[in-house]
Design a protein that fits this description.
By secondary structure, the protein is an all-alpha fold. The chain contains 8 helices and no strands. The longest helix is centred in the middle third of the chain and has 19 residues. The N and C termini lie far apart (43 Å).
Length: 159
């Protein structure tokens, strides 16, 4: 029980840049949080706004702030819709988190539940509020309940 309380205290100190102990604690958080990459975007040749080069991670992008990680995710997901015609949560998640790496069905159902929609509902991702809710729900699946909806909205506003 005491370990859990200590962990909760340390996470609270690290959350959103508390001045005390951030570097020590942040280094112990999962890679998506350490990399300011809430949706675990893999490294690419894309010249993302806020991208840290070279990345601190050999497999995943690193951003200078999480808002840039949310921005990149929002741009990618809007591209899924405009370039590939992926219009539902099921279709978007199947591409984002393919079944050879993830439990795609569980991921899709989780995100749909967070949005209070069916996984097969067609989405209008030009609606920035809906897009922010989508990437926020996906970030919960990717890195846990670390980022707020407001964090996701800040990133989407940069798109």
């Amino acid at each position: 029980m005491a370990r859990w309380l200590l962990l909760i205290l340390l996470m609270a100190l690290a959350y959103k840049g508390a001045d005390t102990g951030v570097k020590l604690v942040k280094s112990q958080l999962n890679r998506g949080i350490r990399n300011n990459n809430p949706l675990n975007i893999r490294i690419s040749n894309s010249a993302w706004t806020g991208k840290v080069t070279p990345s601190q991670d050999k497999a995943f992008e690193t951003f200078s702030d999480s808002k840039y990680g949310f921005r990149a995710a929002a741009k990618l997901i809007r591209n899924y819709q405009s370039l590939y015609g992926l219009n539902t949560i099921d279709e978007i998640i199947a591409r984002w988190a393919p079944s050879h790496e993830n439990d795609t069905r569980n991921y899709s159902q989780f995100v749909a539940g967070q949005l209070n929609l069916s996984p097969s509902t067609a989405l209008n991702l030009s609606d920035s509020n809906l897009l922010a809710r989508l990437v926020h729900a996906m970030s919960i699946m990717e890195v846990g309940r670390y980022y707020s909806l407001s964090d996701a909205q800040q990133g989407v506003a940069l798109v």
